[in-house]
Amino acid sequence: MSRSRRSRLKRMVVLFLIFFVPTSVVFYTVVRDRVLSAVAEPVRQGSEHSKQVALAVNVDWGEEYIPAMLEVCRGSGAKLTFFLTGRWADLHPDLARRIKEEGHEIGNHGYGHPHPDHLSVEQNGADIIRAENAIFQATGCRPTLYAPPYGESGKAVLKAAENSGYTVVLWSLDTVDWKSRNRDAILERVRGRMHNGAILLMHPTEATAQALPDILSLLESKGLQPVTVSALIGRKTINDMNQNGIRF
To answer: If you write DSSP's letter for every residue of 90-156 in order, what string do you get?
Structure first.
């Protein structure tokens, strides 16, 4: 190859690197952002015209208080939605199974309770599916609802949940029972903020178990029916699987 041809080739390579590579990066970024922005928003409540309320219990600890909560629900007939972490289901399969067998809904709360907004789409997806598999091993069901830890719901979280076949669930009313573990404080917060179609966030604490009968009485006094999250938002729930663990 002549020196002039080599020189022209070098110039072409330089021009390619200068113009094509940055353009490709910009194109990739635009496409990625559009894909991420197209995902469904989290569900925070049901219809404001609904006379129903869902009680959502995020579970990564507090197993010592769950039996008391189940007894209250058994007496009242209320059905809750328990969002379990995978690691909790691994540690407490019998209690996870009891929750399901007593007619409550099971949701996915991730495996190790990470900060989802610090993870990529792929990392979030892996955490969600790992939790799903642990929950399936404990209960025989694969959830379709995902409550991200800490309520973090960035684009990567939403996309990962969508890719995994999940509806992301947050809340419209928070007991803040993880912080203020006082029965009266929980009741006061709930009493003044309860509304039609609310998703009430709870955790298994001693104060929550003590407050639960009064919360259910409050709902009854307002003509509100406690239902599962799926029932509130009109989603089908998958709590039973075939022998291969396939959703049907």
So the answer is: HH-HHHHHHHHHTT-EEEE--SS---GGGS-HHHHHHHHHHHHHHHHHHHS---SEE--GGG---HH
Domain boundaries, the chain: 1-38, 52-233
DSSP 30-60: HHHHHHHHTSPPPB-B--TT--EEEEEEEES
Antiparallel, parallel or unpaired: β 199-202 and 225-227: unpaired
* Alpha-carbon gap, residue 81 to 68, rounded angstroms: 15
Pick from 161, 116, 167: nearest CA to 144: 167
| pLDDT of the chain, 248 residues: tens digit per residue | 566 666 676 776 666 666 665 554 444 444 445 544 568 999 999 999 999 999 999 999 999 999 999 999 999 999 999 999 999 999 999 999 999 999 999 999 999 999 999 999 999 999 999 999 999 999 999 999 999 999 999 999 999 999 999 999 999 999 999 998 899 999 999 999 999 999 999 999 999 999 999 999 999 999 999 999 999 999 765 444 444 454 43
CATH architecture of 52-233: Alpha-Beta Barrel (3.20)
- CA angle 177-180-184, nearest 5°? 85
Q: Tokens 């002039």 correspond to what residue? A: 4
